[in-house]
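Per reviewer request, we include the raw input and output of the structure prediction for the construct analysed in the revised manuscript.
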Amino acid sequence: MIGDFPLATMLQLTVNGALGGAMYGVAAVGLSLIFGTMRLIFLAQGAIIILAAYLVRAMFYRFGIDPFLSMPIVLAVGAGAGWLTYQVLFRRAATMADRNISLLLAVGLMFLIQNLMTVIWGGNTAGIVTSYTAKGIELFGIRTSLTRSIGFLIAVAGTGLVVVFLKRTLVGKAVRAASEDMVAATLLGINPHRVNAIAFAIGIALAGAAGVAVATTFPFNPFAGFIFSLKALVALTLGGIGNVGGALAGGIILGLIEAYVQYFISGGWTNAVAYGVFMLVLMFKPEGLFNRPFQKA
């Protein structure tokens, strides 16, 4: 029984789960922005996270750039790549009534990135070992790795900056308006393509930030991205579509679920239970845990 375990063990599981889940959360924030403006489940998000992890690894081993110090480069490249991706691949599809075209483009992009990574870096598992990889932080008897803690701070800071951008800037308010009603926003003079491109740029930049955290924390391979996409989708559903803070909270909740299930039941059950919770939320609270219930017609 859970009550038989010491409090320190529960606290340790909670901290580990929250730190790991924050990476799902920051990926879900980017997914939320793209879905909000285009109504597109961007399944290539996870592949881009792993691509960013490989780029961080390459910069570290070839040029000696510390993974966390490479963050500005990764964010800039990610934002530029996001803008370009929308203009080249999704601009025309965004005007079509059939959203399946955009979804198929995202799936195709995911497979393209996966295969390119396999050709360039091979299919073996990779990782980054730095001077601080094995270092930990201990507070009140709870110990965690330094890299996970920094990854958590990256997720919180990234989400906070997105919230400020959406609420305090004119461009951010335009993105919010478009996510509520693109037709009405267009009638008010908001350029839908500009809003979509901005959402893509921020979403891919956040995937880059998540890639930095993944590269310094976990081993990875070219095919690990699909799992990240699925976990980001689960986190987005838990937190509520359109709720940026909720997306991060949903990722943390998912991380907690995985940590508890792995410890108290079995590691083989983590995905099954996580996806089971995902289905239950869709069935009984489809608006998410942190949004108001949908109005009935």
